[in-house]
Each structure stands twice: as structure tokens, then as C-alpha cells.
Amino acid sequence: MRYQLPITKPKYLVTAVILLITILSVFYNYSLSNKLKELRKNLATNENERLIGVEYERQRQEDTYNFDENLIVIYNRVPKTGSTSFVNLAYDLCKKNHFHVLHINITGNMHVLSLANQLDFVRNITSWKQMKPALYHGHMAYLDFSKFGMPAKPLYINLIRKPLDRLVSYYYFLRYGDNYRPNLVRRKAGDKITFDECVEQQLADCDPRLMWLQIPFFCGHASECWEAGNTWALAQAKRNLVQEYFLVGFTEQMEDFVSLLEVSLPRFFRGSLDHYGTSNRSHLRQTTSKIAPNKETVEKIQGSDVWKMENELYEFAAQQFYFMQKKMTLPGKNILQSYMYEKVRPK
């Protein structure tokens, strides 16, 4: 009698196949999970190494970045505030102190740059490595570098003058010139009308609105800055003076301004105070035949809104300057303020 193998029922075969597939699937998923964990671990390690490398490079660049040698100072000089005397001091010092001085010459003596020139200017002086460190000067309004996405801002400095004194000086300058270029014939040469007579006759050359210049120079390139009597412009000029200017001095005490700069920015102004006092640079450009206005003229001018606003900016600038000057030394002592780090943790 022939032996016959038992026939496996189909349902047991199906169960066995399913069980085998399940075992293989679990094994595959387990293996895949381990591989993914290992991959994530490697990625995390690589990312940590990358971040460490980035931080190291940042610190290396920070440690090696020479702030003094990349310094840019902009002196957006207001006309008739003693700026020629100060600029020539910088030209005298630039070779000795190893920095560049460059004049910003805008077409037609305009004080505002076109939008295209604004962008070109900020890019140019930011990237012009061969000219760093540098002091740029010119009769132009304040320009905000952060508006154009620049990685760093220059240091702004300026001088400000009593508004009526500045207007009177400019009035006679147009008629008689100055001792800086005595042979140059000025636009109003031959006009013998005094400033007092001009005010009495209400002529255009002594219009109080002509005093509206220091506010827009500190306010900037916005259209409102150049609207005489604009209260927003005055507020913006004050904000910029405090937040965007490294130091603002005033014409009547230029020697103190030079002294403060020498202490604060020795990279440019080392030796400036001695040079200023001994080189006849303190009154380099003086207007010829200037006649002080009489009491009635002064009262008329000071009654105008423009004078009041310009004078408010002047007084505000003087207040800031005196505050900075006072904080340079210890109270009651002629000792410069200093600082140090301590209690540094962890050790």
C-alpha cells in the first residue's frame, strides 16, 4: 500500500505566507528605522559642526576686524558755520594720522542727492576699501545708510551756528566775499544795502525763511525737511542729531568741539587741538565788511517762526554737546572717564 502525504489545507498556507510577510515587514521597518535614526544623527552632527564653523568664522572675523582702519566719517557741513576752518584742519592732519579726506561735490551746489545717486554714494563709500579710513565732507543733507541695506553706518559729525549770525554772515559774504579767496567776485558784488536796510525794506535777500538750512541739513532727504516752518522736520532733525550723529559742536566753541573729537576719535584727530591753536586755522575764512544788525532788526528776525525753530535746534544741539562734554571727565576732577569689565562668569 503506497504512503500518501497529507494535503495541507489552503487556509494554513495563506496564514503561513501572511506570517512570513509580517515578520519580513517588521524586520524591514526595524532596519529602516535604525538607518533613519543613524542618518538623523549624522545630519545633526554635521549641522552642529557647520554651526560651530560659522560661529568660529564670525568670531575670527570679529577678532581680526580693524574698526579704526575701516572707519568712515561724514561731515555734512552746513554753509557759513566755520566749516572751512575745520575741514582744513582735517586736511592738515590726514597725512600725519594716515587717513583720507574727500570732498563731496554735488552738481550745482545742490544739497540733496537724487535717489539713484543716494544708492550709488552709499554703496561706493561703503565698499571703497582703498580709501578707508576716510573723512568725507560736503554741503549735503543727512543721508540714512540703513535705508539702503548697508551692513554698516558711517559716523556723522557736524557744526551748528546761531541762525541769525549765520544768515548775516551769508548776506555779507555774497556781497564782499571773504579773506579765503579775496579776489573772487561774488554774486551780489556791488550791492551796498546793509542787512538792516534789507530787513527794513523787506527784501528777498534777508527773508527769515533763508535761515531754514540747519534744520533740513540734519533732517535729511525727505521733502518735508525742506519746507520752511515744517514742525515734523524740526522733530526729525532733533531725532537724527541725537540718534545718528556721533558729535555735533557749534561754531562759537569750535575749540571745544576739536578737543572732544581728539579724545573720542584719536584715529583721525590725534594732535588736532595743538594744531588748531598754533596753525592759524581757527578763523581761516572770515566774511569781509560784516556789519552787526541793530536791535530793531534782531527783534524783527527773532519774531519769525523760522528763527524760533532754527534757534530751538541750535539750543538743543548745544544742550547735547554740553552734556557730552560734562560726561567726559569725573565730576569735579580733570580726569577722563574710563570703564572696565569685572565679575566675568564662568571663570
Secondary structure layout plus pairing:
Layout: H1 10-64, E1 72-75, H2 83-97, E2 100-103, H3 115-127, E3 134-137, E4 155-160, H4 163-176, H5 195-200, H6 214-219, H7 231-243, E5 245-250, H8 254-264, H9 266-269, H10 272-278, H11 295-302, H12 305-326
Parallel strand pairs: 1-3, 1-4, 2-3, 4-5
Helix pairs in contact: 7-12, 8-10
Subunit structure: Homotrimer.
GO molecular function, one term: heparan sulfate 2-sulfotransferase activity
InterPro entries: Heparan_SO4_2-O-STrfase (IPR007734), P-loop_NTPase (IPR027417), Sulfotransferase (IPR005331)
Number of helices: 12
Tell me the major beta sheet: 5 strands, parallel
Distance separating the two termini: 96 Å
DSSP strand count: 5
Averaged pLDDT, please? 88
Please report the first level of CATH classification, the CATH class of the largest domain. Answer: Alpha Beta
Tell me the helix content: 40-55%
Oligomerization state: single chain
Strand order of the largest sheet: 2-3-1-4-5
**CATH-derived topology of the largest domain:** Rossmann fold
The value of Rg in angstroms is: 35 Å
What count of structural domains? Answer: 2
CATH superfamily grouping of the largest domain: P-loop containing nucleotide triphosphate hydrolases
**How large is the share of residues in beta strands?**
5-15%
Q: What are the segments in which pLDDT stays under 50 over at least 5 consecutive residues?
A: none
The computed structural class is: alpha/beta
Shape summary: elongated
| CATH architecture label of the largest domain | 3-Layer(aba) Sandwich
Order of SSEs, N→C? HEHEHEEHHHHEHHHHH
